[in-house]
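To illustrate this point, what follows is a protein record of this kind.

___
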Amino acid sequence: MIPGFLVYFLVGSLLIDVHGVPVEVVVDNPANLVCKEENESNEQVLWYKTKPEKLLSTSLNVLGPYKNRMHVKSPYPGEWVLVIKRVEVTDAGGYICKVSGSVMAEIDLVVQTPPTIHQTNDMTFNEGDTGIVWCNATGFPTPNIRWYSKPPHQEDGIGHYTGAEGNKLVLHNITRYYDNIYGCEATNAAGNVFAETRIHVNFGPEVDILGENVTAVIGEEVTLHCVIAAYPMDGVGEWAFQNRSEPIEYSWKYNVVPDPELKTDFNTLIVSLTIRFGALGNQDYGQYVCRTKNFSRGYSDKVVVIQSN
């Protein structure tokens, strides 16, 4: 065993920061730090780490606290390799190999860590806002970040590259068409990771009619389609005769069908009104209105005409 005073002298005399040959290793992988001595002497070899100063081994013997994670091997005469079996972040820093009182190797172990993204929750903005979406990514080296976007109904792929880079995405003068999934990809030498955030945009309801005014003959089945776009989709759509307050209800004559399938991904609701086959009479010609009800952000309607041939 090396005497305590000698350990203090050998280590304490070199309590300096090491700026040596860089060795880059991804965390959790093995590292091999190589020390060579041209004269191939059989003198004692010391490996130690600086900041904080730790004596790691004497010759081929790793000291007690480090035996489980490190060992020293000599594959060739005059060559000693300090092997770190599974590198940890705290292993980063300077290492010195000293043979017969002379420094034979100065190594700077750089421990690379893959990126990690701290997930951002879904966000909601109003039309006209300027919004900022953050990609809080950590890792070493510092990750490069690129932004992508895709429609909310698209399940596969990362979407198209927006041209934006950096840890924040700034959305200026937001409109409803910014309602998308935004993804950030963080990449460094140790790996890459991808995370997504859904952006919702508040806007008042808008009503549109599918198709032009309808021409029909007595007894013919007629179907009217109304499209309502809004966010939040917190109301309902209904059909009524123009200038009448009461809505048209489901009955033997009318079939009123709201289709909610597009609500989640497209902020859209389709409400259809069908006058069943054989039920259309002279009294049914005229104006029909599709209108919104109980929407928190406003009201909208649109008129369509059923006319005789």
Notes: Residues 290 and 302 are 5 Å apart (CA to CA). Confidence is low (pLDDT under 50) at residues 1-18.
